[in-house]
Specification:
Elements: H1 3-22, H2 29-52, E1 69-71, E2 77-79, H3 84-101, H4 112-120, E3 125-127, E4 130-132, H5 145-172, H6 177-200, H7 204-244
Antiparallel strand pairs: 1-2, 3-4
């Protein structure tokens, strides 16, 4: 799994919320379509989380933080320094930030000195000049979970606040029940997702014993919301078909 798989899923949700907030009125088919897109992205994200369960504990919690050598993807290793984790976490965050601005992150997007550090770091994969942030249960890629989770939480909370505002706006305007239900479902799913990723950054024992349960809770929420909306989506589809007949 790569970090952009998770972050771009949340990004799709955020895009729908930003668009809905930009509309002067929440009428017509577009708002409901945007909610459908957000829900679809959350369903995909929930499946990714389930596929990645259980999240690995942070290496330092698992007793690996004091290793004197840092493994490399090619099977070799090098001597570590006390600043390795913090410095490379900062590099990971920088790559994630650039990923927010570009569809594809390449070494050319960075200053030469930063690009050299990324190319030499053990925490990335490069394909040509393309840079990806892998997520794994073993070091060095297991160390990427912490900065990725921090970024994921930040993005989820931003999207959650947007959709809470949308719910308040739809209710105040006396909007249709389908749109209210859809927006409320997205809020519920985002709230549960925020809980899941926070638990993923908890201590090793909690992660090992409870992540599957929390991700099951997320999937149950997603499935429940999707089940509630399917009849409404079919009704909207029939209505559009009748209008076009």
């Amino acid at each position: 799994m790569h970090a952009d798989s998770l972050l771009r899923g949340v990004g799709r949700v955020a895009e729908q919320g930003e668009h809905l907030l930009s509309l002067r009125t929440l009428s017509g088919p577009d708002p409901s379509r945007r909610v459908d897109v957000a829900m679809g992205a959350l369903v995909d994200l929930a499946e990714l989380l389930r596929a990645g369960a259980p999240f690995p504990p942070r290496p330092e919690v698992a007793g690996r933080g004091n290793d004197s050598r840092v493994p490399r993807p090619d099977g070799g290793s090098r001597e570590s320094s006390p600043d390795d984790t913090g410095t490379e976490d900062a590099l990971v965050r920088r790559v994630l930030e650039v990923g927010d601005e570009h569809d594809e992150v390449t070494l050319e997007a960075f200053e030469p000195s930063v690009a050299d550090r990324i190319a030499d770091a053990s925490r990335f994969e490069t394909v040509g000049s393309r840079v990806v942030v892998p997520l794994s249960s073993v070091v060095p890629y297991a160390r990427n979970w912490r900065p990725v989770i921090e970024a994921l939480i930040e993005r989820v909370e931003d999207a959650l606040e947007d959709f809470r505002r949308i719910v308040r706006r739809v209710r105040a305007a006396g909007g249709n029940g389908t749109l209210v239900t859809g927006c409320e479902a997205v809020v519920e799913m985002l709230e549960t997702l925020a809980l899941v990723v926070r638990r993923a950054d908890a201590d090793a024992r909690y992660v090992r014993e409870r992540t599957d349960h929390r991700q099951g809770e997320l999937l149950a929420t997603v499935e429940r919301a999707a089940t509630q909306l399917r009849p409404q989506q079919r009704t909207r589809s029939r209505t559009r078909s009748d209008d076009n007949a």
